[in-house]
Structure formats: C-alpha cells, structure tokens
Amino acid sequence: LLACHVALAQNDPLPSWNDGAVKTAVTAFVERVTADGSSDFVPAPERIAVFDNDGTLWCEQPVYFQVAFAFDRVSALAPQHPEWKTEEPFRSLLAKDMKTFTANGEKSVLAVIAATHAGMTTDDFRQAVLDWIATAKHPRFNRLYTDLVYQPMLELLGYLRANGFKTFIVSGGGIEFMRPWTEKIYGIPPEQVVGSSAVTQFDMGADGKPVLMKLAKTEFVDDGSGKPVGINRFIGRRPIFAFGNSDGDLQMLQWTAAGAGARFMGLVHHTDAEREYAYDRQSSVGRLDKALDEAAARGWTIVDIKRDWGRVFAWE
Amino acid sequence: LLACHVALAQNDPLPSWNDGAVKTAVTAFVERVTADGSSDFVPAPERIAVFDNDGTLWCEQPVYFQVAFAFDRVSALAPQHPEWKTEEPFRSLLAKDMKTFTANGEKSVLAVIAATHAGMTTDDFRQAVLDWIATAKHPRFNRLYTDLVYQPMLELLGYLRANGFKTFIVSGGGIEFMRPWTEKIYGIPPEQVVGSSAVTQFDMGADGKPVLMKLAKTEFVDDGSGKPVGINRFIGRRPIFAFGNSDGDLQMLQWTAAGAGARFMGLVHHTDAEREYAYDRQSSVGRLDKALDEAAARGWTIVDIKRDWGRVFAWE
Ligand SMILES: [Ca+2]
Ligand SMILES: [Ca+2]
Which residues on neighbouring strands pair with residue A218, listed in sequence order? Predict the structure, then answer.
C-alpha cells in the first residue's frame, strides 16, 4: 500500500482531480509543509488532517446514510414501539415521509439515533452496523453505501498519509456507526474517528463478563462548535489541514485557521446534479451557507465538484 | 529510535527487568501474538496496549504529581480567592496539610483540578503545564517529575511498539495535564492519551480568533468503570494488553480480559520503600486491594517492584 502511494506520488498523486487552482492549492500546501528547509515546514507528528465525513468523504443525499441505517432499525424495532405510529420523528420515518422528517433537520436524526442506537451492547451495535453496511443499497445508485465514497477524497487521504500526515474523521455522525468500517474503506482506524456519541455504561454481566451498554442519552454532539471541542478532546492538537462541506464545519475550519504557520482549509461544494447532487444554501441536509461566504472572504479552498473532480465515484 | 528498539529487541528488550516469571510472561505474550502462524496471532492494527499513568508509568507518591502542580496553581491563585483560607480542600492544600487533603482522596484532587484548571484557554493551560513540568522538583528525590518515570515501563513501551503495538495512556489524571509532555517522555502522542477532562467551550475572541475555554465543570472521570468507557470512546477497540496499579484499573483489566483470544493483564505492585515507595491495600493514593485479589485469583501478572525491576529510575 505504501509502495502504491509512493508510486502515485511520483506520478500524479491525485489522478481524479482535474488540473486547476484547487488541485494546485492542495499539492502546493503539502509541498510547503513537508519540504526540508521550507519556512513552512511542519514536523510529521504535527501534520494532523481532519475530515468531515457526510458530504465530504462520502455522499449524504437524499438523507444522511446513518438515517437510512436508522430507517431499517426503526422498521425492525417498530413492533416493540406502538407509540412510534404517532410520535415524530418516528411516524414520518416509518411512513417514509422524508419531507417531514428532514424538516426538523439534525434534531430528528439525533432523536432517531438515540432511540435506535440504545439498549444494546457496543459489540451488538457494531455487528448491526457491519451487517447493514455489507448489504443495504442506496436508493438512487443501487449500490452499497460504501461504494459512494468520493474517489478524489480517497486519493487525498492516501496522498496526505504518504506525506506523513495522520488523517482523522471529525463528523457529526455517530462515532459507533463509523468505526466498524472506516479502517477498511478510508484507511482510518477507529482510534482516529471523532464523532457524536451516546452515553455508555459499564455493566458486569450475569456470566461475569463485563459489557458496555449504549444508553438513550446523548453524550456529545460533534457538530458546529462541538467540532473544535471534539478535536481538542480526542486529538489534543490543532489540525493544520481541515476539510468540510457544510455550516457544521465552520468552527472546525475557523479553529484550524487560527493556528500559527501554514494552514489549509477546504470545503466541498456539491455542484454536480448529474454525477452526484447539487445543493448548498437551501438544503436541509448539509446546508452550506455561512461557511461558503466565509470561505470566499478568507480565501479558503472551495472544491467545485463539477469543475474539480474528473471522477466522483471509483466505479464511474 | 526505531533502529534503537530493533537493536534492543535483538539482545534483551527489557534490560531493567530481572529475569523471572514476570518478565517471561511479558515476552512470551508478545511472541505469541506476533509470531506468524501462531494460533494466538493478532494483526498489528488490533495490538492495542493501554497503560494507566500514575503509579504505573511514573511515581505517584507522596501525592499524585498533578496535585503538586495544583499546589503551585492554588498558591499562585490564592490572592484572588480569599475564601480558600477556610474552604476545603483548598485550606489544607495551602497549609500543606497533606494528611487532611489526601483523606478525601480523589474528591479533593478533582475539586482542586476543577478550581485551578479552569477559567483559561486550553493553550494557556498547556503553557502553564509545560512551564511547571520543566522546573518543579519532587520533594523526596529533588528531581524533575519527569525523571520519576519508571525505566522498565519505558522499555516495555518501546518493546511493544517495536512489535507493532500502538501504546495508549488511560489515566484518571487530567488529559490536558498529560498531553503536553507524554510524547517527549513516553513516545505517546497527545491523540493516544485518554484521561479525565473538564468541559471546554468554543468562544470567538474579540480579535476574531476562536479559543477553547476550560470551564470549572467535570466532563469525564476516567477512573474505575470510566476506564472501559473511556477506552471505548477514545480508542474504539478493546485492548489486548493492559497495565495498571490500583483498584481504579480493575474494570479496565476486566474489560481487557473479557475479549476473545490472547490477553495480557498486568499490575504494578509497589513493594520497594527503599528505591521508591511501598504501599497497597491501605494507601489513600493508588490503593491496590480488590484488584490485587482479583489478579491473584485470575492469574494476571503482578509486578513486584523489589523483585522484578533491576532498576526503577533511569538515573539510578
Ligand atoms: Ca458534512
Ligand atoms: Ca494509577
């Protein structure tokens, strides 16, 4: 794998990125911070790169994929919860009334996550995620959800790691939903995944074996100003490279930008309705409004998918 | 550094450990899980090793070193807090009345930490720790506190890393107190340090630069049953190797032991009053009672410092 990255780096490290200002901004930054004798040189241990997940590393439409997972969990658990027939957001989810569901935004998602991701052990939840991710299909593309990771971002992750960066996910999504598959799909191990979480409780089982029970209580929401808080808590160093795609990433980008020395702040702007989806200021999923303005004002890098990505998905 | 570890491994990887059952238990375990074709082979990414810090990697007597740091902070901040003259645990700390202070155990420590570690930015706190750790001296040994790390454990950390393990600290101590110096002293980077923490808050400064403020509110106590919770939250995989020294490590050891496949659970038993300190069941700092019984009953490895460590500190 390393040999592969080195070979790529000797040719074009980012073959799915079209030539242009955006691609050059990425490679010029990496060269500046890694070249011996560069005034912007950053020692390898401090080359921390953070990536939002939904809409940055993989697709997030028509709903966050974790919501699709929650759909299936809600359907499976519905017989034990007759009250869900009238109680939102469960009613709309069961009725596949996405318009109502998404109108409440993150709040609906978090309520469903709390209700469907609790009352089981962490090991059992992990297995439920693995079973789902291996079989469930995206409604438009009819492919596994993990086939909907962005090929240019996979190349970017590999390119950064080949240049001594340590890559992290910092996502509003559930930490226990991502960790079972991020190592295989992104090359990012569980211990480099930061996300939202529920409280877990250590219980000694009747068989003398301890378990961690997932409780229906939000512990941490890794979104908005929660992202720099999560970065500080889990990583303990300020990143020098950060990529997001929505207003939920603004504070993470501000926090990254406020450090000393060379910095890279990037946003993915979804502009390609044909190959993927086009959405920004008005979207209930992945709204990109304030962060788009601030990125433009401060000269952060904005990826225009239509213009900058020669290929969106690996299977295209 | 890697070359150094490899060289050590070719000779004796643990020169400060006396030959005997304990040293053999460590090396036999590492060989079992790393040898190709071994029925106990564990792939490198799953070789997660966790270490308690106080009393396991460095000395914790006569008080936790973070308490000594808090001493100095309390003294420095006392003029702004006249109420501390009568309010415990501040009164006893300012009077250097350690007996009263330690009688309340962890509670006193956490109260002082909350009061002295808050109301400043994470960056300012980090600098305060760095300044203190570079200058403060231990009352008995008259050496920097970082000179009181255990040489055999430094060798063990290096030996594990040379064998593909990823080493983590999982400590009841403050995460922001450890992170500024663990990379230099232990070779453990900030992102591999799990500890207790206070709530931090993202604030936009008047200069347009964001800061993270440390609040006087406990967020997480990484002790007892908090340790497996912290391991799950920060690392996201169950360790195969865990080392502690007190009852606060019992659940971490139980959690490690409950996984499938080969496992190593170790305890440091402080038995050498001449070279270090001797304490266990009656100690208010680092009490080792229930965990000592459970370790004996379940055949976990118990390091007897007097018997098993040829050298305790590097400078002996
Ligand atoms: Ca996103
Ligand atoms: Ca300890």
Answer: A198
- Could you say which DSSP state residue B314 is in? T
- At A188-232, the pLDDT tens digits run 999 999 999 999 999 998 888 999 999 989 899 999 999 999 999
Q: Chain B residues with CB inside 8 Å of A236's CB?
A: 175-176, 179, 190-191, 193
- Does B183 sit within 8 Å of A236, measured CB to CB? no
Gap between the Cα atoms of B113 and B132, Å rounded:
15
Residue in this structure with the two tokens 């799990």, named with its chain if needed: B194
Rounded average pLDDT over A109-123: 86
A70 close to A129: Cβ distance less than 8 angstroms? no
User: What is the set of domains in chain B, with CATH numbers?
Assistant: 2-62+142-308 (3.40.50.1000), 65-133 (no CATH)
Q: Which residues contact B273 (CB under 8 A, 6 or more apart)?
A: none
First-to-last C-alpha distance (Å) of chain A: 23
Q: How far is A176 from chain B (nearest CA, A)?
A: 8
Model confidence pLDDT, tens digit, residues A33-52: 999 999 999 999 999 999 99
Q: B112 pLDDT exceeds 80?
A: yes
Q: Which residues contact A7 (CB under 8 A, 6 or more apart)?
A: none
- Ligand 1 centroid to Cα of residue A248, in Å, is 7
Confirm or reject contact between A232 and chain B (CB < 8 A): yes
